[in-house]
Amino acid sequence: MALALWLGSLLSSCWQNLSILGVFLTVFTLVLDFMKRRKKWSRYPPGPVSLPFIGTMLHVDFRRPHVSFRQFHKKFGNVFNLQNCWTNVVVLNGYQTVKDALVHKSEDFADRPYFPVYEHLGYGSKSEGIIVAKYGPIWKELRRFTLSTLRNFGMGKKSLEERVTEEAGFLCSAVESEEGKPFDLRFLVNNAVCNVICTTVYGERFNYGDETFKMMLHLFESSLNEETGFLPQLLNVLPILLRIPGVPQMVFRGQKVFMDFIDVLIEKHMETWNPAHIRDFTDVFLTEMKKGKEAEERGFNYNNLRLVTADLFIAGSETTSTTLRWAFLYMLLHPEIQSKVQAEIDKVIGKEKPPTMKDQVSMPYTNAVIHEVQRCGDIVPVGLPHMTYRDTEVQGFFIPKGTTVITNLSSVLKDETVWEKPNEFYPEHFLDANGQFVKPEAFLPFSAGRRACPGEQLARMELFIFFTTLMQKFTFALPEDQPRPWEDGHFALTNAPHPYLIRAVPR
To answer: What are the TM regions of this chain, as residue ranges (predicted)?
Structure first.
């Protein structure tokens, strides 16, 4: 009995101590949360109620953030704030607001927030690549070098157009080998688009049946899915969780294996590099690296070689291949539009001559269809986060330096004040009363300002040549036993169509 009383007393004492400790920790964390929270700046944008610790994160569906932003846009207007734990976020909506920020005040919004979830891939203060690099002299140097080198290897020149045309021919042969049977166009299109940038960056293209390349494309898709959802957002704002052994490798397994693939390509280059025989972008970067400490201080180091080439691979393949997948989905869903495109191709180009960029100016309807695919497909709905480089203002709202800024490109491409039928596939958005091609200023699928996509020129060329070449050779139809494909997209950084089967009937 005495033992039972003693144990009871001991448990009661422990419970009291735990309760006191719990109260202390709760008070401490609440005080910490209060100290960490943003100041109440005057003229700061409105937003949903922010909870302790998590801020407004429970208000956002990170699997479909553009849908959540659409709801906030209706409630709070063109500029509203969110709070990811203790990180201040401002979301810009509508064409005029985004234009004011990215065009009229481009340097104010030229910075990027730091992404701790990429550290395990080699990102750090001296190696950030181009896409997510901080705004500053190293980013400027690497971007200038990249654009200059790509131009030397044919960007914007006939030599690159010939390469795209040649790849379009390989793609047509691969599609023809399906013999009109139902198939998933996704990997053939991905392979074709990737080959264009791979040839320029790594001097290597991959056959359509290459199993290693297929595996890499699967890994790349997996890595995009890994970056979507609540958990990556939480890890970015609470990076201490990434210090738990094994967490980055477990959560971002696809990212790591994808970068391992990039490492293999680079290592092969380093073994065969010859300064007297420059083959591609990677060789030029290696040549810069050999210039010593001064070059290293300008950002030319091994880690940046990995990250810059990976950035080019991603930027030069994912958005373009996704856009083409949307294009053929819309042709399935709108056969009358497909017929009009083919009629224009037959009239301007004929059925045998390969399409060229010179043909584009004489093909207003086809050009309008391609642009409407980009607008309606809404490929990068929320863009990549920016960060304010200095204190600034937008639409009368104050946004302090260091604030994460999201430009809601979806709200621009579907702005009801600009587009006649914003939620429908309607190529007439890009045609005037005389049927001539026009491009409204609100067409910003590549974003704008200092952080606009550096591969825009290549993407435009690929979209026109790949699309018109396939439409010249095939009529695309929905297999008889297949349900109508979903028209909504699957968000994983990019907004991609759900997988669908297609029949390519030779014309």
So the answer is: 15-35
Instruction: Calculate Rg over the CA atoms of the chain.
Output: 26
**Phi (first) and psi of residue 387, to 5 degrees:** -145, 140
Q: Which of 415, 483, 462 is nearest to 443 (CA)?
A: 415
Q: Are strands 397-399 and 392-394 parallel, antiparallel or unpaired?
A: antiparallel
Tokens of 85: 């734990």
Strands 87-92, 404-407: pairing kind: parallel
Contact 50, 83 (CB under 8 A): yes
Q: Bridge partners of 405?
A: 90, 386
Region of 222 please: left (phi>0), alpha (psi -120 to 50) or beta.
alpha
Q: CB neighbours of 198 closer than 8 A, spacing ≥ 6?
A: 204, 205, 206, 313
> Can you tell me which residue has the tokens 């006649």?
420
Cβ-based burial of 114 (10 A; exposed 0-12, middle 13-18, buried ≥19): middle
| pLDDT score for 20 | 54
Half-sphere exposure of 52 (CA within 13 A, CB side): 10
- As a whole number of angstroms, the distance between CA 383 and CA 109 comes to 13
Q: Return the pLDDT at 28.
A: 47
Residues in binding site: 453
Domains of the chain by residue range: 137-506
Mean pLDDT, contiguous 10-residue spans, the chain (507 residues): 58 57 48 51 91 90 92 96 93 96 96 90 84 93 91 69 94 95 92 91 86 80 80 84 80 83 89 89 92 89 92 87 97 97 97 94 98 96 94 96 96 95 97 96 93 88 97 95 87 90 95
Q: Does domain 137-506 have CATH number 3.30.70.20?
A: no
Annotated binding site for heme: 453
For residue 10, which amino acid is it? L
| In contact, 93 and 408? CB cutoff 8 Å | yes
3-class secondary structure per residue, 72-131: HHHHHCCEEEEEECCEEEEEECCHHHHHHHHHHCCHHHCECCCCHHHHHHCCECCECCCC
- 232-241 long-range contacts (CB < 8 A, ≥24 apart) are 232/62, 232/117, 233/57, 233/62, 233/84, 234/57, 234/85, 235/116, 235/117, 236/84, 236/87, 236/115, 236/116, 236/117, 237/84, 237/85, 237/86, 237/87, 238/85, 239/116, 239/117, 239/119
Measured distance CA(322)–CA(342) in Å, rounded: 21
* Helix (H/G/I), strand (E/B), else coil: 490: strand
